[in-house]
Amino acid sequence: MRGLITTPESRPVPPIQLPTAAVGRRELLRVGALSILGCAGGDAFGRRVATAATAGPPADGWQRQCIFILLQGGASHIDLWDPKPRAVAEIRGPYRPIATAAPGIEFGELMERSATVADKLCVIRSMTHKFSNHIAGTYITLTGSNNQRDQDREAHSDDFPGPGAVLNALQTSAPGVPRSVSLPNWLSIPGPSNRMPGQYGGFLGAVHDPFIIEGDPNAAGYKPLALTPPEGMTNDRLGNRLELNRRLDGVARLLEKDTRQQYDRLQQSAYDLVTDGRFRRALDLSEEPAQVREAYGRTKFGQSLLLARRLVEVGVQFVAYNAFNQEWDTHGGLVGRYSQIVPPMDRAFAALVADLADRGLLERTLVVNTGEFGRTPGINKDAGRDHWPNVYSTVLAGGGVRGGVVYGASDSKGAEPADRPVTPADVLATVYDRLGIPPNTELRDRLNRPMQLSDGTVLDIC
Questions:
Q1: Contact assessment for residue 107 and residue 85, using Cβ atoms and an 8 Å cutoff
Q2: DSSP of 43-77
Q3: Which end of the chain has less Cβ packing within 10 Å, N or C?
């Protein structure tokens, strides 16, 4: 059960009402894949779908946004964000600490570019949970839920929804651009569906899955979506077809009233994405100056984060960067592997923070950089580190969060929290709070059971 939480304002929030209805796969596919709600399955309308809860904008009136970077596989806190130079060699590892732009804060030497923006970062060094399995660790990172086994499994309809799906469910109107986007791929797990839990709509329904933008933004000729109308198809003609489609559906009375409204939102969303050029232009990285693209790095990671910045600029509220196939899992050969994957991440993350700051977007855009857990304090026999959820690091920037600070601490070995332990639920409660959504918002599942959005505590970091 999700319990009471501490929030800056404790106020009752109306529960999300979940109507029941059903529609066939053919009817759903007819809406079109270009839904702002990220329609991703034929059973979307067979789920109990949320309307909107009362969730106003932050007190300062801005719509805050979030870029959530998940280094899936588990990045090493000791080698990146929380060096232990006084520990023995088998604990401190191969990397020396370096000074940063925040006095008194050191990072591992591979994080040389992130060190230059440390004055804008809040480094949480006391993250902790109990799940050492990749899938279980990812699920708690994205949902805050402890209601699971510490083992592999695939996503299913009773999962707790991820942040992107929650935001989709809470919206009251279609704004012309997706409210949540995942890129450059879904998080995957070997199995029949390859669907890793935590990133989808879960009990809110597949209709609320994030909008997926797949592909490598650094590849030549990158065109992730065909959002340009066919030749000769004007916006007026598209509008006429949309209106005719609605009238035919009204006559047929295919759907119940509440679900009809959800269905109409899908249709309108598909139409808006084609006729509103903002989203289409945001996906065109050729509009960026060459020096900006170079600053992020001409890599899949770098150009994905540049794309994330362009998406929040046009109004996308939540952008998730998903590392592919547990690429941060380093049980052996850590030095060789980190020489490949850390520099692109370090470069892109630092460029994103600096770029958002230069454009005046950082104050309203919360950036989260985390893995699902850390790595063992000791180097193993294969010159790597193993899974370690006992303590690890998560880095925040922007969104009103104080920069140049460390929150919490690990012990001298980087093995356990030594001060102010923080759970993934606490981070998510803070994310929701920064986005103007009370963490005690009540959702209801398909059996109409109440589910609190987050039972975490909003961190005092703003």
A1: no
A2: TGGGS-----------TTS---EEEEEE-TT---H
A3: N
Contact of 70 with 138, CB cutoff 8 Å: yes
At a CB cut-off of 8 Å and minimum separation 6, what does 21 contact?
A: 45, 46, 255, 256, 258, 259
Secondary structure (H, E, C), 136-147: HHHHHHHHCCCC
Cβ partners under 8 Å of residue 174, min gap 6: 36, 265, 268, 269, 272
Domain extent, residue 261, equals: 25-452
Q: pLDDT for 222-235, tens place per residue?
A: 988 755 555 554 55
The pTM of the whole model exceeds 0.85: no
Q: Which of 122, 133, 125, 123 is nearest to 74 (CA)?
A: 133
What is the spatial distance between Cα 393 and Cα 372, in angstroms, rounded to a whole number?
10
- For 328-384, how does the pLDDT look when each residue is reduced to its tens digit (9 = 90+)? 999 999 999 999 999 999 999 999 999 999 999 999 999 999 999 999 999 999 999
* 83 alpha carbon, distance to own chain's centre: 26
Neighbouring C-beta atoms of residue 230, cutoff 10 Å: 8
- 20 is a domain residue: no
Domain count of the chain? 1
Distance CA 134, CA 201 (A): 20
Residue 384 forms part of a structural domain: yes
Host H or E run for residue 211: strand 211-212
CA distance 438 to 434: 9
Q: Does residue 108 sit within a domain?
A: yes
